[in-house]
Automatic annotation (TrEMBL):
SUPFAM superfamilies: Calcium-dependent phosphotriesterase. InterPro entries: WD40/YVTN_repeat-like_dom_sf (IPR015943). Keywords: Signal. Residues 1-20 form the signal peptide. This is Two component regulator propeller.
Length: 707
C-alpha cells in the first residue's frame, strides 16, 4: 500500500496539463507615458484616435504618439455636436449620437433628443432599480449598439428597450464618473475621479493606483478597435493598457527570465530594490529575512516544472536552488542550523551595525520578544561571508517542503539523493538534539524556532500549538521519507503518544483573535501539510490530518490564492484516491468511535476547491510585480469585516471572495487577500516571479489545470 500511494504522488501529468498551459488568454499590460516619452507636462484633457494612433491634448498643446514618442502636431478643435438643445435648468455634461439623435447627460438627468422635438427625460428601470439620474457624466454606445451611462446612482445600459443597471451590489466599484469610451466586442471603459473601470460581459475590472495609472483622476479615454488597447488620460500623464494574447507557459517563461535577471543573488532568490521608484531598470539585488524560504519555493517551482515538462533548464535551476539552500545549512555555527541569509563580507549594507546591541534594545521597546543577539550576522569560518541567524519557522517550512519535492522529482543519481539525505538529516537532528528547537550561536532558541512540548503547552506558545505541532510532525515525516531512518518515526511517535502533537495538528492554523492571525502562516501551514500528508502511511493519522487540512482550508479558501489552492487540491485529490482504494475501510482504526472513519471519508471524500479560481489567479497575476500601494477602502463593491477586534481595512468583494489579485496591493502569494489597504514597498521593490511559477507548475504537475 505504501509503495502504491507513493507512486500516485509522483506520477506526472504531462498530457492533462498541456492544453491548459498553452491555451491563450488576455493579459493586460500597462505602459505609463510621461514627459520622458515627450508628453508635455500637465493635465491630459482629451485623447482621440487619428489613423488609429492616439492624439492627446495637454494644457492647450496637441501631441500624437508615433514610434514610441509623443510628437507635436497642429492643434485640433474638439468635435462639437451641432444642434443640441439649450437647457435652462441644468448643465450638459456629455452627449453621444443615439437613435437618429442624441443621448445627453446632464447634471439633472439623462435625456434623449431628436431634432425638431422636445428633449425627453429618461428614467432607467430594471427588475431591481428605478432611478432619477443625477450627474450623468459618462455616455457611450458600445460595439453592440447598447447605450451605456455612468451617474451618481450607478452605471447601466439600454439594450433595445431593456435596461440593465449596476450598483456596488452588482460589482460596480466606483461611481464618480468623468467619461466613457467603447472598445471591441462590447467592451466599455469608464473614467472616474478615482481610476478607470473596464466592463466586459457585465464584469467590472477596476484599474486604479500607480499599478495601472500615473494618476487616479481620469479625464479622457480612447480605445483602439483593432486590438482593444485603451489610452487613458489623467492629470499626470497617459496610461496605455494593452490586451496581449498570452499562454500560461509563455507567462512562466517571462517570469523565469525576470527571476534570473533581477532576483538571483549568488543563487538566492528574493525581492529586488528599485533605486528609482517604479523603474525596474534601476533594480539592485536585495536580501530578505526569508531568503531560504523564497529560494526553496523557487527551487520547488523548478522541480515541479522539471517533473511536468522534462525541461533540462528546470533541473539546472532546481539543482542550483538546492545547493544554495544546503549552503545556508552548511555555513552556520552548528551542524544542521540553517542561516536566514548569506552575504559577502563586502556587502554594502553595514549589517551588524544595523543590528547592534543598542539597536536590539531599542527594538525591544516596541517589540518585547525581539531577540537581543549579537552579532546577528556572524562571519563564516573562511572569513568570506556573513550569515544571518535567529532563523524562523518560515525558513524550516521552505527547506523541508523543497527537499521532499526535490528528492522525489529531481534528484536522480545516488550522489544527488545522498546530498538531500545529508542536509535533511542534519537539520532534523539539530532539532531533535535540542529538544525540538532551533538553537542559535548564543546557545538559546531562536525567536520563532521553538517546537518543543514545553513551549507548545505554555501560555506563551498556546497560539502556535496547532501550527508548530503539525510542522514538527511534518519535518519528521519528510526526514523519515528522505533518509529512510526509522528513528524519525520513533521521535514522531513520542510527540504523538506523550504530547498529543497529532491532536494539535487537527487545528493547524489560528483564526482568531486577529492579532494571532498572520497570512504568511498560511504558507507555513499548507507547505508543511504537503509533506505531512504525502509521506504519512498510517490510515488513522491520514484521516486526522485530512480534517486538519480542511480546517486550515476553510479559513482561506475564499482568497483565490493559486498556491494555497493547488496544495489543498493536490492533497484532497490524493485522499480521494486513497478512499477509492479502500485504504480506510479498516473497522479497527478507531475502536472507541467506529463511525469516525466513515464520517471523515464521506465528509471529505472530495476536495472543496474550484479549478477556475486557480486559473483566474494565475491569469490575473500582473506581469509587473512592482509593489504598489493600493487603497480599496472607498469601493462600493466591497463588504467590510465587522468582526470584533478586526482591523477596519479588511473586507472582500460582494461576491464573497477576495478582490482579484491585480486590483489589490499584494502580488505575493503569502499575504492577506482581504487586506483592502496594502503596500508592498510603495514602488521601491520588485517581487520575484516565484509567486506565479510555483502555483503554476505545481498545478500543472498535479493535473489541476485540465479538470
Amino acid at each position: 500500500m505504501k509503495l502504491f500511494f507513493h507512486c500516485i504522488l509522483l506520477a506526472p501529468f504531462y498530457s492533462l496539463g498541456q492544453s491548459a498551459a498553452d491555451q491563450k488568454f488576455v493579459q493586460e499590460v500597462v505602459t505609463i507615458h510621461s514627459t520622458k516619452e515627450g508628453l508635455p507636462e500637465g493635465k491630459i484633457s482629451r485623447i482621440t484616435l487619428k489613423n488609429n494612433k492616439p492624439v492627446a491634448t495637454v494644457t492647450g498643446k496637441t501631441v500624437q504618439f508615433h514610434e514610441g514618442k509623443w510628437m507635436s502636431v497642429p492643434n485640433e478643435k474638439p468635435v462639437a455636436y451641432a444642434g443640441l438643445p439649450v437647457f435652462s435648468q441644468t448643465k450638459i455634461l456629455t452627449a453621444v449620437p443615439y437613435r437618429d439623435g442624441y443621448a445627453i447627460g446632464c447634471e439633472e438627468g439623462l435625456y434623449f433628443f431628436k431634432h425638431g422635438k422636445k428633449p425627453e427625460r429618461i428614467f432607467p428601470k430594471d427588475n431591481q432599480y428605478s432611478w432619477v439620474l443625477r450627474n450623468v457624466a459618462a455616455l457611450v454606445t458600445d460595439s453592440k449598439g447598447r447605450l451605456w451611462f455612468g451617474a451618481d446612482e450607478g452605471a447601466g445600459y439600454l439594450d433595445g428597450n431593456k435596461w440593465k443597471l449596476f450598483t456596488g451590489k452588482e460589482g460596480l466599484p466606483y461611481n464618480q464618473f468623468t467619461c466613457a469610451a467603447a472598445g471591441p466586442e462590447g467592451i466599455v471603459w469608464f473614467g472616474t475621479k478615482k481610476g478607470a473601470i473596464e466592463v466586459d460581459n457585465d464584469e467590472f475590472k477596476y484599474r486604479f493606483s500607480r499599478r495601472w495609472l500615473p494618476d487616479d483622476q481620469v479625464n479622457t479615454i480612447a480605445v483602439q478597435n483593432d486590438n482593444g488597447t485603451a489610452w487613458i488620460g489623467t492629470d499626470k500623464g497617459v496610461s496605455q493598457i494593452a490586451r496581449v494574447s498570452l499562454s500560461l507557459e509563455e507567462k512562466a517563461g517571462l517570469f523565469t527570465k525576470q527571476v534570473e535577471q533581477r532576483h538571483n543573488r549568488m543563487g538566492f532568490i528574493a525581492q529586488s530594490h528599485l533605486k528609482e521608484q517604479f523603474n525596474v531598470a534601476t533594480s539592485e539585488v536585495a536580501i530578505s529575512d526569508n531568503d531560504g524560504m523564497y529560494t526553496a519555493m523557487y527551487g520547488a517551482a523548478q522541480a515541479f516544472r522539471y517533473a511536468a515538462t522534462g525541461d533540462p533548464e528546470a533541473k539546472v535551476l532546481a539543482d542550483r536552488s538546492f545547493k544554495s539552500c544546503k549552503w545556508l545549512v552548511d555555513i552556520s555555527h552548528e551542524k544542521g542550523f540553517p542561516a536566514r541569509v548569506i552575504v559577502p563580507v563586502d556587502w554594502p549594507e553595514p549589517v551588524n551595525e544595523i543590528y547592534s546591541r543598542e539597536a536590539n534594545l531599542r527594538h525591544q521597546q516596541s517589540d518585547p520578544m525581539w531577540k537581543d543577539i549579537y552579532p546577528r550576522f556572524p562571519k563564516s569560518k573562511d572569513g568570506k561571508y556573513y550569515w544571518k541567524c535567529d532563523t524562523s519557522s518560515d525558513e524550516l517550512a521552505g527547506h523541508f517542503f523543497f527537499y521532499g519535492v526535490y528528492y522525489d522529482l529531481v534528484a536522480k543519481t545516488e550522489e544527488e539523493k545522498q546530498a538531500v539525505r545529508d542536509v535533511v538529516g542534519d537539520i532534523t537532528d539539530h532539532l531533535v538534539r535540542h529538544g525540538y528547537k532551533l538553537v542559535d550561536h548564543d546557545g538559546k532558541v531562536t525567536r520563532w524556532g521553538d517546537f518543543s512540548p514545553e513551549y507548545i503547552n505554555s501560555v506563551y506558545g498556546y497560539d502556535q500549538r496547532g501550527l508548530n505541532s503539525m510542522m514538527m510532525l511534518s519535518f519528521l515525516n519528510v526526514a523519515r521519507h528522505v533518509t529512510g531512518d526509522k528513528k524519525y518515526e520513533q521521535e514522531a511517535k513520542i510527540l504523538r503518544d506523550k504530547y498529543r502533537y497529532h491532536i494539535n495538528a487537527m487545528h493547524p492554523k489560528e483564526f482568531f483573535p486577529p492579532e494571532n492571525v498572520v497570512p504568511w502562516d498560511n504558507n507555513l501551514c499548507l507547505m508543511s501539510l504537503y509533506g505531512l500528508i504525502n509521506y504519512e502511511t498510517d490510515p488513522s493519522l491520514l484521516l486526522m490530518y485530512r480534517q486538519g487540512l480542511e480546517v486550515a482550508w476553510q479559513h482561506i479558501h475564499k482568497q483565490k490564492n493559486a498556491f494555497w489552492d493547488a496544495i489543498y487540491a493536490s492533497l484532497a485529490n490524493r485522499f480521494t484516491q486513497q478512499a477509492d482504494h479502500k485504504m480506510f475501510e479498516n473497522k479497527g482504526l478507531f475502536p472507541e468511535n467506529r463511525l469516525y472513519s466513515s464520517k471523515v471519508v464521506s465528509g471529505h471524500y472530495k476536495g472543496n476547491y474550484r479549478v477556475d479560481f486557480i486559473l483566474e489567479n494565475l491569469q490575473k497575476i500582473p506581469l509587473d510585480l512592482i509593489g504598489y500601494t493600493m487603497d480599496n477602502t472607498h469601493r462600493l463593491d466591497v463588504v467590510f469585516d465587522t468582526s470584533p477586534m478586526q482591523e477596519k481595512n479588511i473586507g472582500w468583494h460582494v461576491n464573497g471572495y477576495a478582490l482579484p489579485i491585480d486590483e489589490r496591493g499584494h502580488v505575493r502569494q503569502d499575504r492577506d487577500g482581504f487586506a483592502l489597504l496594502a503596500s508592498e514597498g510603495d514602488g521601491h521593490d520588485e517581487h520575484e516571479g516565484t509567486f506565479f511559477l510555483l502555483p503554476y507548475y505545481m498545478a500543472y504537475y498535479h493535473g489541476l489545470l485540465s479538470r
